[in-house]
Amino acid sequence: MDAxxxxxxxxxxxxxxxxxxxxxxxxxxxxxxxxxxxxxxxxDLRVTGKKMEQKMYYRHSGYVGNLKTFRLREMMxxxxxxxxxxxxxxxxxxxxxxxxxxxxxxxxSGPDHPHEAQVTGHPATQAxxxxxxEDGG
Length: 137
Prior knowledge:
Layout: H1 8-20, E1 37-39, H2 51-54, E2 56-60, E3 67-71, H3 72-78, H4 80-91, H5 96-103, E4 105-107, H6 130-134
Parallel strand pairs: 1-4
Antiparallel strand pairs: 2-3
Helix pairs in contact: 1-4, 3-4
C-alpha cells in the first residue's frame, strides 16, 4: 500500500482489515487468514484538523515519574512509520491474534522496501546459484 497523501485513520483501518483477513470470504476469527501488508511512504501521511499539534503519544518506562509525551508532529519527524504502526495496533484485537497480525505489517517511511516479491520487475540481488556455492563464493 502506498500511504502518500492518505489520511492516517482511514489507511490504518484498511490495513487492520487486511491483516485480520476480514476482507476475505474464508475469514474465521480463530484462524490467521490475513495477508502481509507492506506500506511505503509513511512520511507522507496526512491528518485533519489540529492533530499535528494536539494529538499526544505517551510512553512509560515503569519507573515513577518517567512518563514521556510526544506530539504527533515530533513523531512524524523522527519516526513516521511508528505513527502508522500505533494507529493499526489500536484497531487490532488485544489478544494473540492481534499480536500475530501486527507481525505481518511492514512499514517504511520512503518509497523503497526490501521485500523482493512485491518489487515490480526483476529483483536487484538474487541468491547465489548452485555453481557459486560449489565454488565457495
